[in-house]
Specification:
- The protein is mainly alpha-helical.
- It is 52% helix and 7% strand.
- It has a three-stranded parallel sheet.
- Helix 1 links the parallel strand 1 and strand 2.
- The longest helix is centred in the C-terminal third of the chain and has 28 residues.
- The chain is elongated.
- The structure holds tryptophan.
- Tryptophan binds next to strand 1 and helix 8.
Length: 336
């Protein structure tokens, strides 16, 4: 899949690590928010990407269909260009050493720091009685994920930045206590367009059902696009529209050519193009954009055991690193 390349930072060559909970088929928001950058980073870094299936257990809803969701998500990864020959693709739960490290890190993690993490405060507000111990420790496990592979660079969205900030604090405390074992990981924030869902207001998300799947058929995509909310003030076809408030226009900026974007802007503001026509044009542009991805995905999906084999090989590589790190960790801690 093509797309605007993110610019690689000058400090090429470190180890990148990122993960995603197994949410099943990915949507446009996931692609532009993370996956596209993961693909690009392969050119400059030693990349480790994993399925955060243990983290998925913190919210029980996400454990339904764990296997199927993992397979679908990893197919999307591969179809989008994550290359198992260049990147280590693996499953979090299959490297149990990370859970051991999580336990040791929990001993040097101040409770107050965990309670100040924004995502924790949010969960506390949303479901005070549904809070589990694992959710409080979410950033501790996330820290173990990063540092067990000695990763120094963590590409995540702004919402995850506080977690990595806490990872740095945990690393400083661990190193302070037991010696310089781990590098302090850095967040790599990349420029990502924020993708709103079909409701035109909220960020695209599967749970809000306002999303467009990368792997959807062209027909499904068109159907979804046709339900998109446009400028609410444009009540009649003859009313001039305001493209600057319209999410269909925002998406044209990503998927359509500069010329088409200019024509649509003009046609909308002088009411020569109606919203229906505008949406048809967008659906076609999205389908053209995703066509190579969808072809590749169908091809990958037809190969039996492909996902299993890729993940088995990646997990073996990842685990070898984790096992070495843990030998050092136990030694530094001073276990008999
Ligand atoms: N917390 C991340 C998310 O919800 C997933 C994740 C788990 C992660 N461990 C990680 C991301 C380590 C980066 C590094 O999307």
């Amino acid at each position: 899949m093509t797309g605007l390349p993110v610019e690689l930072p000058p400090n090429k060559g470190g180890r990148v690590l990122s993960g995603a909970r197994p949410t099943g088929r990915l949507h446009l928001g996931n692609y532009f928010g993370a996956l596209r950058n993961w693909v690009t980073l392969q050119d400059g870094y030693d990349c480790f990407y994993f399925v955060a299936d243990v983290h998925a257990l913190t919210t029980v809803e996400d454990t339904q269909g764990l296997r199927e969701n993992t397979r679908e998500m990893v197919l999307d990864w591969l179809a989008a260009g994550l290359d198992p020959d260049r990147s280590t693709l693996f499953i979090q739960s299959r490297v149990p050493e990370v859970l051991e490290l999580h336990a040791y890190l929990s001993m040097v993690t101040p409770m107050g720091s965990l309670q100040r993490v924004p995502s924790f405060k949010e969960q506390m507000r949303l479901r005070p009685e549904g809070l589990n111990y694992g959710l409080v420790g979410y950033p501790v496990l996330q820290t173990a994920d990063i540092i067990i592979y000695l990763a120094d660079t963590v590409p995540v969205g702004v919402d995850q930045a506080p977690h990595v900030e806490l990872s740095r604090e945990i690393v400083r405390r661990f190193n302070g206590q037991f010696g310089e074992v781990f590098p302090e990981p850095q967040v790599l924030l990349s420029e990502t367009p924020s993708i709103r869902g079909t409701d035109g207001e909220q960020k695209m998300s599967k749970s809000l059902d306002n999303h467009i799947e990368l792997a959807a058929s062209a027909e499904e995509t068109t159907q979804r696009v046709m339900t998109m909310v446009t400028d609410p003030q444009r009540a009649r076809r003859t009313d001039p529209g305001r493209p600057w408030v319209c999410n269909v226009y925002a998406l044209h900026n990503i998927f359509s050519s500069d010329d088409a974007v200019r024509d649509i802007y003009e046609g909308c503001t002088n009411a020569t193009i109606g919203c229906v026509e505008d949406k048809h044009a967008l659906a076609n542009a999205i389908n053209d954009y995703l066509w190579p991805f969808r072809e590749r995905r169908a091809e990958l999906q037809s190969r039996p055991h492909l996902v299993e084999d890729v993940l088995a090989a990646g997990t073996e590589r990842a685990r070898a690193v984790a096992v070495r790190t843990m030998e050092e960790v136990r030694d530094r801690i001073g276990f008999f």
